[in-house]
Specification:
The protein is an alpha/beta fold and 254 residues long. The protein has a single domain, classed as TIM Barrel, CATH 3.20.20.70. It is built from ten helices and eight strands. An eight-stranded parallel barrel has the order 1-2-3-4-5-6-7-8, surrounded by five helices. Helix 1 packs parallel to helix 2 and helix 1 packs parallel to helix 10. The longest helix has 26 residues. The mean pLDDT is 96. The structure holds phosphoenolpyruvate (PEP). The site of phosphoenolpyruvate (PEP) has 13 residues, from strand 8.
Length: 254
Amino acid sequence: MKRTPLIAGNWKMNTTVSEACSLARAILTGIESADGVEKVICPPFVSLAPLYEILAASPIKLAAQNMYFRPKGAFTGEVSASMIKPFCSYVILGHSERRQIFGESNEIINSKIIAAFEAGLKPILCLGESLEQRKAGKAVDTVTGQLLNCLVNVRQTSELVIAYEPVWAIGTGVNAAIEEVCQIMEALRAALAGMYGTGTGDEIRLLYGGSVTAENTASYLSQPVIDGALVGGASLDSNQFTTIIKLAAAVKNT
Ligand code: PEP
């Protein structure tokens, strides 16, 4: 099954609106013709509308970093799917920072995935084990458990994207070994096939995230089980992020 590679840059709580506009312009200039790779940037909420204008006629799509599952109402500080939909193709859900800092459970993330699909947004569902869980030999069980619980009653799956991001590799400079990532990807692919059948399960893209840089991109993406990357820190550097995109195009389209 041929899946289009995807590189997404998660800017987290970085960039003012004016910095976001400059960074997006620099990335747009730098990508040249990296065809065959889907390119997504995930700025803070306040930059979605201005970046939508800048990127409208470009091959770069936008994702929100989060959303709430209720359609509207007394939820101070939250943003609904219908509010981000005019600007975004994707939405990151279940990032480990949301789980750890803001206490999001698999049940909440499940509700968000259902609401995102209902609004026509494609979720990028993040999964990953802690260092303790990995050391205890529970990485595969933890991640497949998160997958099953986050996808309860989720029928619409082919547009789902999964990002495997071991918590201990996010923002630490510590990379997961290729074999560790491949083992998890194979377990996720098997779990998806069990849930949705091999046809639909095979269409879902599996990204790796965790201290991805221009230096290590090629070694991850040369693995057929890894369909792309969710990039945090390195996506704030336009040179590095565009290099990652070009490497993805070179590795995956040869
Ligand atoms: C992330 O935030 O999803 C991430 C993977 O961050 P970093 O690339 O900085 O580890």
